[in-house]
Amino acid sequence: MKIYIDVLLFENFLVNLFLMYITSETMSITPKIKKMIFPSIIAASYTLVVFLKNEKFLNSVFFKIGIVAVFLYLYFKIKDWRFIVKSSIVYIMYSMILAGLCIFIDMELNNRFSIELNVINFSYKRIMLSIMFIYILFKRLLCYIKDRKIMKKLIYKVEVEGEGWSKTFNAFLDTGNELREPATNLPVLVIEESVVNDVPLDKKNCFYVPYAVVDGQGGNMVGYKIKNIKIYFDENNVKETQGIICICKNKLSIGNEYSGLLSRGLI
């Protein structure tokens, strides 16, 4: 039987990626495919050991369990031997279930299965690989749709009014943002510079709003008190409030979904 090493490695790479994905979900860790790539390559490379018939140690059960623990540690990066043991057991369990399912399907379809060089040659392997790939793709798609629904619920139509001007844009409710101007104690609305670059802001009567981020860095933003801020929850539910707008030169949304950041005090 001819065995193409590149095809064998690629197929095992996909299988290990799939097994690592469902193991991560079982251990309540958010799957990160990019971090799975290197451990999956190591796991797929171990397949070449089956060609070394005289290497009893490398083909031993204990060494195989050790390899599983190693590449799971490389993925999770959690220095807790109990977690690594649990995740290894889950991974091996899923591997056995998948292998048993493959053998069962092959026996049902062909009434036999063949083993050569410890590599099982299934005629339906492309179907199984396709199922794994579709599962991962479908799962990622569902997560993306779920995240989009959550984000849409946090994006509001906002209208800011000044003396003789008004601007309407979308703003994202930043639930961790409690920024306030210290002198007036008014909540702050951060907006992109492009939104108000053509309106007459009173630069002589401005505020300096101190801010800090989680990594300890901080500074001051220039803020302006405006006439009114309207927040549209829906067509019939509009909240009018007072606040300070601070200008941000950076892009707030890569996809241009919103141009401002609402603080909780404005809601």
UniProtKB/TrEMBL annotation:
Source organism (scientific name): Clostridium cadaveris
Major localization listed first in the record, in broad terms: membrane
Gene Ontology cellular component list: plasma membrane
Any GO molecular function: aspartic-type endopeptidase activity
Subcellular locations according to the entry: Cell membrane
Free-text function comment from the UniProt entry: Probable aspartic protease that is responsible for the proteolytic cleavage of the RNA polymerase sigma E factor (SigE/spoIIGB) to yield the active peptide in the mother cell during sporulation. Responds to a signal from the forespore that is triggered by the extracellular signal protein SpoIIR.
Protein name: Sporulation sigma-E factor-processing peptidase
GO terms for biological process, alphabetical: asexual sporulation; proteolysis; sporulation resulting in formation of a cellular spore
Record bears the keyword Transmembrane: yes
EC number: 3.4.23.-
InterPro entries linked: SpoIIGA
Family that this chain belongs to: Belongs to the peptidase U4 family.
Top-rank EC class of the record's enzyme: hydrolase
Keyword Ribonucleoprotein: no
